[in-house]
Amino acid sequence: MARKIFIGEQDFVTLRENNYFYIDKTEFIRTWWEDGDNTTAIMRPRRFGKTLNMSMVNAFFSIDYEGRGQELFGDLRIWQYENMHRLQGKFPVIFLSFAMVKGSSYGNLLHKLREIIAAAFKKHAYLLESDVLDDADKAYFAKVRFCEQSVDWEVSINKLSAWLSAYYQRKVIILLDEYDAPMQEAYAGGFWQEMTEFMRPFFNASFKSNAYMDRALMTGITRVARESIFSDLNHLAVVTVLDDMYNDAFGFSETEVFAAMDEYGLTDREGVKAWYDGFSFGNRRDVYNPWSIINFLKEKGRFDAYWANTSANRLISNLLQSGSVSLKKQFECLLQGRSIWAEIDNQVVFHDITGNTNAIWSLFVASGYLTGEKVQAAEPGRLVYELRITNYETRCMFDSLVSRWFQSGGDSYNEFIEALLHDDVEAMEDFLNDVSLRTFSFFDVGKLPGQRQEPERFYHGFVLGMMVDLREEYVITSNRESGFGRYDIMLEPRNDSDNAIIIEFKVFRPQREKNLAEALQHALRQIEERNYAAALEAKGIPQERIRKYGFVFEGKKVVVGRGK
Asked: pTM to 2 decimals?
């Protein structure tokens, strides 16, 4: 009988006590322990089992579970190693998670961090009844416990480590899940510097100068650069998605996924592979998204974008929308199913990421939205990768993201699509001018003196984005060769009764044309002279079913025209 699936349960002990669905990742406990690193930070995308694995490590080492080794781990891989039995339940463990540290201001985030630390103190309130704490210690303990602001919070975990070590006569293990969540929130919210000024001394006191710590394990999504919050942690072992270490400890292998499908009587292996495969950690390929697989099993084989729907993706959206022309052009290639090449940096320097295209793609790789393979070494220490959207589920997430950009006026962006399909040139022009005036900045559309953006590329990307919902009815291509040149956008109908569409973008340049009307004629003439319709005609679409449009821009002003 198939085991019951408990969606969202990330507590290892609860899963084991109730015999809920669980894939054995306990080998990680042994490899991490035997590697012997003082402090280890492992980077994996969200919903990839980080919290569950941290709960598993806690259940193995924590004094709270002493004597329960056979019960919790007896039929799992870790229990095959007798030398590990003596470690089970023998350590005081401080287990923190910053996963829910979210907020719109620095004060709000700092308060939530304090609440998490206070909860750790409350868990060990029995220390107040021991002789380990003197009066000054008890006063500090009480202030932290009740979340008072007038406390040196940066040294709180160091102090708790000292007291636990003295009480149990053994050094502590510190587990910190989603360590970088406050930093991502701080960057997206615009208070990065303030958060850095708290986190740097906190990490230093908790990990670097903590004489009472045996070892520590941290998980996160991104490797935040050493110079920001890890400036003093020169003993930190960092494992990113590009490294081979622990590459089988997070995420499901294809063998594990197919075995789970057999348990639940599901057979569409090709569908599962297309939707949820595609992640890679180091040299390990065919890594599946565990959150999506568990939901897929629970829903009896129904495909959906489970992983993509669990996050607002605010940072990702902001970076794409505010990115350079080069970044938008590369993103367009990715949306079309093609790959791009980028130099990937293991470390994310958030305050330098804006305007740095490679840094943004590096963040996307760390977050799991892009995957790829190393294609060449530009020079020692530099990594160049061929990148693509990870799988169909991730593609759905990007499509949804793009669609939301054009819904600032409710569903009004659909007016443009309706106008395009009904050959309503005036309505298309009115819509673009209205949106341009309301939402586009002059920087976006190339009006600022001396700025080097390509405004036609911006409008090109905007219009292409609005066409996402037409993929069921049209094959949408962009910047492809046809005839004697490269068209901007082509819509090839999947239904023989629908019309094909070619769109050419032009920016009015006073040195070349007298006015917008002349620029529009140049755009339409280019479609004819370069025979962009050749690719459509070669597929049997007659000339009378091929509509040709020119879109001409001058700053925020847009003119649309129809060719013959």
From this structure: 0.77
